[in-house]
């Protein structure tokens, strides 16, 4: 039998780096030993009839294929897609801060309708800064928010100062200035507590969810999970009392989405799938499916299923996302969806379909000047070439 094991070195040396080849030879060697232990008579007969080389070749080929398949890693979309409807919900017309905004603006409307009054000038400055954020003119928005903060301080408006700080925090999060965003959110929370808000108030819970999300984006998984668990517990208590409240439901869905992403990063794919499904149901109920956020969530559901080895479900979510993407021709997510579809085909051994999907993704990424898509498509095409060798 020792001579049989030695023959492994003569078998097709596998593709990839020297370390890859060494690993696959080691796998094949262990599989051969297991084979001879389980089938000693067959192994002896094979050795005597000179078929041992064929057995080893088959084992090595299987090891190579399995090793390549284990390198297939579809990409989840966390930072790549901004999830604008939810991630900046304080800034748009959805979510917790809009309530603070409405209350804040109405205070000044009662005091003065004069467009030239200091109060109305502050309101207009804030509105312009929000418009700049929505247009992604971040430097201009930052300047206007600092101006608005000085105006609110001159007016000694506690609500105005709190609201501007909140907008600054959201802008910092949008710009991925995570330390700055966290500090500003904590300052806003302290101001809310000083004004008598309770820890289960929707405004406080909005900030709590975002602080946990910042921890997720910074790779502080334990801190993120703790924050999401606490926030979800408080939200679910509120939902028992107000099950149809859209604002609470939306924040619950937003938090579930981020929580699901964090569980994926923690490789807890079964739990992640559960929470992502709940988030997707709430999001589409409120915003519909024809938007990039829905594409992102469907992609992440597909990735979770892929890691659970549920290829049928993974394909189902990807196919649904690609159908939606047909109505959104400029959605950057389309390229990553196609690249991930190529990897799914590759996992099934459908090399031509995999090549077609990944080639489309590569061209799409080049056209959109999207490095992440190009990199993932390149990775897919390289794996296809290795399978073909």
Keywords:
mainly alpha, single chain, 77% helix, Serine Threonine Protein Phosphatase 5, Tetratricopeptide repeat, 389 residues, disordered N terminus, globular
Helix content: over 70%
CA distance, first residue to last residue: 29 Å
The multimeric state of the shown protein is single chain
- Cα gyration radius (Å): 27 Å
Strand content: under 5%
**What is the typical, i.e. mean, pLDDT?**
81
Structure commentary:
The protein is mostly helical and 389 residues long. Among the domains are: 69 residues, no CATH class; 102 residues, Alpha Horseshoe (Serine Threonine Protein Phosphatase 5, Tetratricopeptide repeat). 77% of the residues lie in helices and 0% in strands. The protein is built from 19 helices and no strands. One of its GO terms (cellular component) is mitochondrial inner membrane. This is Tetratricopeptide repeat protein 19 homolog, mitochondrial. Belongs to the TTC19 family. Keywords: Mitochondrion, Repeat, TPR repeat, Transit peptide. One of its GO terms (biological process) is mitochondrial respiratory chain complex III assembly.
């Amino acid at each position: 039998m020792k001579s049989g094991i030695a023959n492994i070195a003569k078998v097709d040396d596998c593709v990839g780096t020297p370390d890859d080849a060494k690993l696959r030879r080691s796998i094949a060697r262990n599989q051969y030993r297991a084979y001879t232990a389980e089938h000693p008579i067959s192994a002896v007969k094979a050795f005597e009839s000179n078929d041992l080389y064929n057995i080893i070749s088959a084992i090595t080929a299987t090891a190579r294929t399995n090793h390549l398949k284990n390198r297939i890693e579809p990409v989840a979309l966390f930072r790549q897609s901004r999830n604008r409807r939810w991630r900046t919900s304080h800034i748009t017309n959805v979510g917790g801060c809009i309530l603070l905004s409405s209350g804040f603006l109405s205070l000044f409307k009662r005091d003065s309708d004069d467009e030239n009054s200091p109060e109305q000038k502050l309101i207009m400055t804030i509105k312009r800064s929000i418009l700049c954020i929505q247009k992604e003119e971040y430097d201009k928005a930052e300047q206007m928010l600092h101006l608005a903060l000085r105006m609110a301080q001159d007016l000694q408006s506690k609500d105005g100062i709190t609201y501007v700080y909140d907008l600054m925090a959201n802008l910092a999060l949008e710009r991925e200035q995570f330390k700055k965003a966290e500090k500003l959110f904590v300052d806003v929370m302290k101001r809310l507590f000083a004004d008598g808000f309770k820890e289960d108030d929707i405004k406080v819970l909005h900030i709590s969810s975002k602080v946990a999300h910042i921890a997720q984006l910074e790779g502080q998984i334990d801190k993120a999970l703790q924050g999401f668990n606490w926030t979800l517990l408080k939200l679910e208590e509120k939902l028992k009392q107000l099950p149809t409240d859209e604002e609470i439901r939306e924040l619950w869905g937003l938090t579930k989405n981020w929580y699901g992403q964090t569980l994926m990063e923690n490789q807890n794919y079964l739990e992640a799938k559960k929470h992502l499904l709940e988030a997707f149901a709430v999001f589409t109920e409120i915003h519909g499916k024809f938007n990039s956020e829905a594409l992102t969530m469907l992609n992440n559901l597909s990735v979770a299923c892929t890691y659970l080895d549920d290829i049928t479900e993974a394909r189902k979510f990807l196919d649904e996302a690609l159908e939606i993407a047909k109505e959104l021709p400029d959605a950057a997510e389309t390229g990553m969806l196609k690249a991930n579809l190529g990897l799914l085909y590759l996992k099934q051994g459908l090399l031509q379909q995999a090549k077609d999907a990944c080639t489309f993704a590569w061209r799409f990424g080049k056209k959109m000047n999207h490095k992440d898509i190009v990199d993932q498509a390149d990775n897919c095409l390289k794996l296809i070439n290795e399978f073909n060798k």
